Structure formats: C-alpha cells, structure tokens
Amino acid sequence: MNENINKIRNFAILAHIDHGKSTLADRMLEITNTVDKRKMKNQILDGMDIERERGITIKLQPVTMDYKGYQLNLIDTPGHVDFSYEVSRSLAAVETAILLVDATQGIQAQTLANLYLALEQDLTIIPVVNKIDLPAANVPKTKNEIIKLLGCKEEEILSASGKTGEGVADILDAVIAKSNPPQGQSDLKYPRALIFDSKYDEYKGVVAYVRIFDGVLKKGDKIKLMATKAESEVLDIGIFRPDYFSTGELKSGSIGYIVTGFKAVGECRVGDTITFPYVEANRPEPLAGYKEVKPMVFAGIFPTEGDSLEDLREAMEKLKLNDSALVYEPERSEALGFGFRCGFLGLLHLEIFQERLRREYNLDIIVTIPSVAYKIIKKNGAEEIARTPQKLSDPSELISIEEPWVLLDIVVPKEYMGNVIKLAQDKRGIYKNTEYMSVDTDQPRVILHYAIPMAAILTDFYDKIKSVSAGYASINYDYLDYRPADVVKMDIMVADDIVESLATIVYRDEAFRQGKEIVNILKDTIPREMFVIKLQAAIGGKVIAAERLSAMRKDVTAKLYGGDVSRKRKLLEKQKKGKKKMMSMGKGSVNIPPDTFVKILKR
User: I need a surface site. Which of 37, 271, 303, 597 has the fewest CB within 10 A?
Assistant: First the structure.
C-alpha cells in the first residue's frame, strides 16, 4: 500500500451504453499487470453471468492497479439510464472521470447525463475518443462534438482503442498527470469512510465497498455506522484486484472493501459513514451521503408457490443491499396471495431484477403489469400515492389524479428528426427546444428536449424510437413533476373472473384500443380448455372489448359406426351439456402462462 496520499489517484469511466467502458478497463488491467494473463477474459469486471450475456454493465465494480509508482483506483460504471444511480454513487468516491465517447457514434444521451453528474461533483474530466480502430470511426467529427460540449482544446482529447490497447497507456499517464490527489488527513482520532456500495457474501456476510476520506482503518478495529448506529468489528479489509485482496488496513484516500461482520442486511446502508464507536459529545461530522433515489415504475412480485414467500423476502433483502435503488413493501392480493410491491428506476431495472431472482435464488415468481406512481387527491382532502390499479377502484371518491412527467432528451441525426418528433407527439410529449450538436458535418445531429408523461415511455418507447431512427437515436430522462391525468382503471376478466394481476391504469381515450390489444394477446397465449373461455376488458363494470376462446372439441361419435342418427345426436347433446356444466364450474381454473404478462407489457 502507498504510504503517500499524493501517490493515489481515484477515477471512474463514464460513457453511454456500449461505448466500450468494460473493454477499456480490461486493457488497463493488462497494461498494469493487475490480472494474470492466464486469468484474463473479456469484460473481466462484469462479475454477473447476466452482464456477460447481455454485454452490459449493471453493477459498478472497483479495482486497484499499481502503475509507475502510483496506486490507481478505477470504478467501472454502467451506461444504461436505469442504472445512472450506480454512476452517481461511484462519482462520490473519486476525483476524476474519464469521459469515453465512441468514435463511430459520437456523443449520446447518456454521455451527456453522466457528464452533468460528474460536473455536479466538481470532478476533473479527461475526454477520450474510443474505438478508433473501427473502419466507421470518425475521429475529427467526434472531437468537434466534445470540444463544443466541454469547451476544451483539441490536444486535450485523447484517442484510444479498448480493443487493440492503442492509446490506453496515455490515458493512465493523463490520469496521473491531470488528476488531483485525494484530500484527507490520516492522523485523525475518528476515521471516516463512505460506503458507496455493499454486497452480501454467503461466507463473509455483509461486505461494504468504501472510500476512506480520513484516517486509517485496520483489521480488528471496532467500527460504528453513523446513520444506523450499528456497531461491529472489521473482520477483514483490503483492495480489489479485482477479487478481494486482503491488505490488513486502508489509509486515507484509498478505495477498498471491509468485511463488516454484520449479518443483518439493513444495518449496512449505502451512503452511510463508517467510523470508530463514539459518544455523542465527540460525534464526528458524517460524510455527505447520497440523495434518496425515487423509483419511477412499480410492479407486484409474488411467489408462484405460497410457501416460498420467506425465501423471496430473504432474496430481496440481499438484492436490496447490492441494489440500493430498489424499494419494496409487503402487499396482499386477492388472487395471488402475499407478495411485495416493488419500485424500480425503469423497465430494464425490473427485467434484470426478475432475472437475478430466478438465477441467483432459484425462485419462480409472478410479476404484475408495471405502472407508474400516480398521485390521487380525494374528496376529503387526503393525498395518496397510488402504486396499484386497485387504489383507483372507486372514482366517486376522487377529485383528481396526477401522473409523473419526465424531461426527455433525445440525441438523433437531423434526417430522422421528423420521425422522432411525430413519435414524441403521439406519446403526448410537449416540445421544449432543439440544440444542434454538430452542424458542419455530413451527418448533423440534434438534441430534442421534451416534457413527457413517464407512463408514455414506460413500455415500448425505447424500441419504437430505435426503429423510427434506424437505431441511431439515444434517450435519457429525468423526473420533472406531477401533472393532472385523465386515467381510469381497466379490469381484465377471464372466464367471467377478474384477473387482478392483469388490471392496468390507462388513458381514458386509449382504453378501447388497449383493451382490444390485451384480449387479443390473451386469446393467442392462453391454452384452450374443454369449454369456451370469455375474455373481456372492462371499465367500472362496463365491458369495452371482448373475445371468445373456442373450446377444444373431442369427437365423441368416433366409436359409432352405422346405426340410427339419433344415437349420434344424443351423444353430441350429452357433450354440450357437459361443456355447459364445466363452464359454470370451471371458473378460476383457467391457467394463464407467465409469458403472457411479458407479452402484454411489450404490446
């Protein structure tokens, strides 16, 4: 470990999704000999199988490298808008940000969003053009966009290829030369460490990822968390290489991990400050934590088997530790029993969460159709946040319903501008203004700014904007405010029974179209039974769309040959009566396949 705090550099890599952050990090680990060549593999910092399969980073991942006598602490961050909270947490632990821009795509929406996060934290920005080895790379155009955005000089922008390794050593040299060393005092009575992430390890218990701001923490030290007031002992302490590498102590300015000895997940919260046990009179000043993240999308999560509720609760507690943007509370549903109402930052966040429950904890779950959080104002003056369609059951009690709006930024080549504007208007977007990013090039690009309802971009907006812009558009959004909405609760009935998990909140003027779409999807996905199944969409008891799923027909006359026709009629009549009886008794026995929910969601 470096004795001298001036020999430490802490930095993060920021970029839009798929601009090459993890590949660049791979080359840095190779150049600094942090990972043995035999153990090297692509996306080495992406520890989850799901990250490697999808080729995206979901979790921030720190690693410590030794290079030219300096200790370089890198945090690789995600690029997708749903995981920007991970990025903002990483930035509180570093002094420098490498702003990575793909030379074939130029600046995208998430590049801008991440840059603004870094500027808010007053970090040193090192701009880098990546993927210069690709035939489609347009380095001069990309550099012009960066100059226009940052107001820097052309010679300050570095060029590199994360794939071939070209220019990567220059980036490391620039981090050493341009970055400020961390500030902090190592001889304080009470050390202070910020928890910027944490993880539950089967063998070690709760592991906190920390940045030491002041003082020194050693193995065996008694510690106290300032927000939760929980006390424990440092069972192990060290740095990331990128696996846990025990060093026995961490000094001011360092980034590393602490095995806290906590068994309860809730005791070790992200954003908390670790220090020594203190009395209130000598209380040290806690470090500025993180602002509470506001979930945007809510969905019910229920176990398919009622007896696995405790397993689900335990799994969610452990995931919550590792994913501090997740919010959940217990919920009971008439049809699905006990489960949880969970809040997410977006649909990808929900999808990844579902996938992690299935893979890491082997749980079978039912997910209800996601909706945004509506604000309802009742006649008695009470204000409530409605996260489920059931809260809108009685319209006679309500004065008004408000929905969340977001500020949407769309980066798109000028030639597709018309298509994007039309799509945004169809989705109830209100146009704000247009910024021109690159005018003097063959392919000028613009940033369109819109105010738009969160519900409008919740389901298929991302796919549609990619299709109308031939894949070139990128989006980013931020919460704006609540505005009045004309929405109603739509129930879906299968065989005359209301299926609670399929209830949705829809705009009144779109109810008929959406109801028709949902019953058609049900008609295509529900397996046929021996009786006719009625499929209906209804608002306040009034059916607005309906379909019938015809019965499977068994040939009861197959064993007859010859004889009187009345025998044939008799058997058919008997079958008809049987079907009628089954239909009256068979309510609720219609099985809805789990993928139906996904199909309705992505309709």
Answer: 37
Q: Do residues 273 and 321 both lie within one domain?
A: no
CATH number at residue 89: 3.40.50.300
Tell me the residue range of the domain where 99 lies.
5-178
* pLDDT over 70 percentage in the chain: 83
pLDDT grade, residue 37 (50/70/90)?
low
Instruction: Please say if the pLDDT value at position 451 is more than 90.
Output: yes
Mean pLDDT of the chain: 80
* Residue 208 to residue 198: CA distance in whole angstroms: 4
Whole-number Å distance between alpha carbons of 235 and 376: 49
d(CA 437, CA 145): 6
Which three-class secondary structure state does DSSP give residue 446?
Answer: strand
Q: Is the whole-model pTM more than 0.85?
A: no
H-type alpha helices, 309-384? 309-322, 347-361
d(CA 24, CA 27): 5
- How many separate domains does the chain show? 5
**576 & 595 share domain:** yes
C-alpha distances (whole Å) from 168 to each of 129, 132, 358, 392, 441 are: 11, 12, 38, 56, 28
Which residue, 574, 579, 346, 338, is CA-closest to 477? Answer: 346
The letter for the amino acid at 42 is: N
Task: Please report whether residue 454 resides in a domain.
Answer: yes
Mean pLDDT of 267-280: 79
Residues placed in the known binding site: 18-23, 130-133
